[in-house]
Amino acid sequence: MPSSTAETGASAGSPALPGEPSERTRLGLGILAAGASLGIVGDALLRVEPWGVNATLCIWAAVAAALALVRWGRIPVTRDTPWLALTAVLLGAAFVRRDSEWLQFFDFVALAGVLSLGVLAARGTSLRGRSVLEYAGAALGTAAHASVGALRLVFSDIRWAEIPLNGRLRAVKSVGLGALIATPVLLVFGALFASADAVFASVLRNTVSIDPAEVLGHLVLMGVLGALAAGYFAGALLPAPARAVPLLGAWTQPRLGIIPVATALGLVNLLFLLFVVVQLRYLFGGDVVVLETTGLTLAEYARSGFFELVTVSGLVLPVLLGADGLLRNEGAPGRRAFRYLAGLLLVLLGVVMVSALERMRLYVAEFGLSEDRLYATAFMGYLAILFAWFAWTVLRERQRRFAFGGVIQGLAVLAGLHILNPDALIARVNLDRAVQGNRFDAEYLAHQLSADAVPVLLERIPGLAREQSCDLTTRLLSRWTEEESGDWRSWNWSRAQARRLVRERRATLEAVPCPPPA
Predict the structure, then answer these.
(1) How far apart are CA 376 and CA 306, in angstroms?
(2) pTM for this entry
(3) How many C-beta neighbours within 10 Å does residue 191 have?
(4) pLDDT bracket for residue 467 (50, 70, 90)
């Protein structure tokens, strides 16, 4: 019976015949399929707690998959392997036999140990005569394989160029790969759009009849479980190559063509187009349309989705940069198709950003300005500049200029915020609204805003109603009349100015008439 790693490597790494995939690629594809199947099984079974027979069935399915791969790949293993498989089966049965959480915990620990020993056995290493350090090393190595082995499997072990495909099958594969790439992006954007807009959520439910958040949860669990299983099997059954390839080395030479990337971008464009159509009708249609459709006022409708749209806008940039990186070595026709699709997405995103800014305008008009609203709006402004810069550089094949320009633009926006003095602006806007009879929050203005707002607050107090001015002056005196604690190293000009101004006007502030307590 063969028992050496070298013999195992000969089995899995033998050269392929012309036009056929190598044994390593063939086994890697089998491992990938087994991992995907176990991910689906795990998602279907393990969502119900507490665990019982579902855990048993999952463990047994994993053991069956491992034995099937060993037999299908003709992998030589040691005589310890059947005993380890039987032990795993019994440990799996223990989950359905006992309900003690501590017992199940120890069963899980024992199962992890068996799996780590299974790697040694599958690689032709006898379990007898091994030291504790060797066992510990096997456990650590197994954990590492399970964690990141799926990435090496996909980007290094499986040589996709060896898989024979005719033109039609290759196009189908590319389209399917593009749809697979687009799925998580569509789910994230769809969930954000649905959260941002009740009307769009209703349209999505009526059109697709699925919950994007629920589907995303299923995909995440299937992906995690499948990656862990595939990584473990790859570490156990695929020998280390003679010349190791860096785990992420494949990213330096993208292997995707225009078809999968165009498919993914096209699907994202369709989702954005659907949302834009909804926005043009409902948000820009006025109070009547929104009230009849959602039961909300226009301001309440606007309030519900601004920050989700900010998140969507922020996520588009890494999507476009990632697509550009995957097509960096593509020919002129592919790059031209990417520019058209990316340009369309930028146009649709522009409508989404206008929608978000219109929501913020209505939001502030009804509820006032705050720090998170102001900085989110500033971030949207920066994104608008950055996307314009992306179109001017990346879409014109000048990628190397983009990053530095983006940094400079970000610093410029930050400098603009310093000049603007955000807290003073927030105080000014909200006090103007108070004078007009709108909502007034003295606690927020005097205690949550920084010392930067104090000069504006002191300037505007005389124009407030008696109750408002009394509330604001009381809070300012309680916060800024005491001497600053700490030593000179904590000194700040704005805080020192705020204390100086309040002390100088203390007599005037204390003379503000306050209504008698109720």
Answers:
(1) 9
(2) 0.67
(3) 20
(4) confident
